[in-house]
Amino acid sequence: MKTIISDDALSGYVTKRWLSDRKRDYYYRKAKKEKLRSRAAYKLLQINDRFSIISPGDRVVDLGASPGGWSQVALELAGSTGKVVAADMRRMRPIEGVEFVLGDIRKGETVKAIIESLGGSADIVISDMSPNISGNYSTDHARSIELCEHALSFSRKVLRQRGTLLVKVFEGDLYREYLEHLKRYFKTVKAHGPKASRQASSEIYVIATGFFGDGPTEIA
Ligand SMILES: C[S@@+](CC[C@H](N)C(=O)[O-])C[C@H]1O[C@@H](n2cnc3c(N)ncnc32)[C@H](O)[C@@H]1O
Fold it and tell me: pLDDT by residue (tens digit) across 39-80?
């Protein structure tokens, strides 16, 4: 049976083999050494090296932030003049300088709390959200797309004009349709697989830049 493979998907099946593979994993060990909370932190760093999406002074919203690796990197990149608001349905150990909202992004009350905490528009929304993995490829892919759609509708509420959305997607047959949906709201939509993603991984990171603002442009 085909299953979604991603770092976090794999963690749904914690076995002795998975634990020992993880200990040997280069980025896992590097994250431990550099006091980053996740190996995923390197994916954001690599994406930023390539696409320069977060700049000093940026206001960043990190969706699906727990345990906090991306938030640590976002805080470093946005600097003391920037702001980072993180949200997750799982608790996150506090990070100094990062405001955290506990809640499900599919719920209006969570969206409202993030917007209140942000206190203005965002320059960029980053989403590394992953569904709980069931092991059924189509189900997991559809759940990932659902989260991506929530990341998009959230972004439409908070992004400034020409703002950016970075979103993780598990590949599958709804992927192209999602890209088309993004293109209604953003000038440029690019897909990227950072080196820190495992080779067998089904995850893709989509970088959508140049938010049109004020609702969708009409499609011809
Ligand atoms: C791969 S982890 C994120 C890792 C994080 N980027 C880091 O570097 O530490 C995915 C996260 O998405 C969160 N998530 C999944 N569905 C969510 C939802 N509906 N609302 C909020 N968070 C969600 C999960 O709780 C999980 O913590």
Answer: 999 999 999 999 999 999 999 999 999 999 999 999 999 999
Number of domains in the chain: 1
- Identified catalytic residue from 16, 168, 183, 190: 168
198 within a domain of the structure (yes/no): yes
Is pLDDT of 23 > 70?
no
User: Is the CB of residue 71 below 6 angstroms from any atom belonging to ligand 1?
Assistant: no
Indicate whether residue 144 lines ligand 1 (CB < 6 A).
no
Beta bridge partners of 85: 61, 99
Indicate the average pLDDT of the chain.
90
pLDDT-derived band at 219 (thresholds 50, 70, 90) equals very low
Q: Give CA separation, 61 vs 28, 54, 116, 132, in Å.
A: 24, 11, 12, 22
Q: Which residue, among 147, 99, 158, has the nearest Cα to 123 in the 3D structure?
A: 158
Tokens of 47: 């994406």
Phi, psi torsion values for 200, nearest 5 degrees = -80, 0
In a domain, 31, yes or no: yes
Active site residue 168: yes
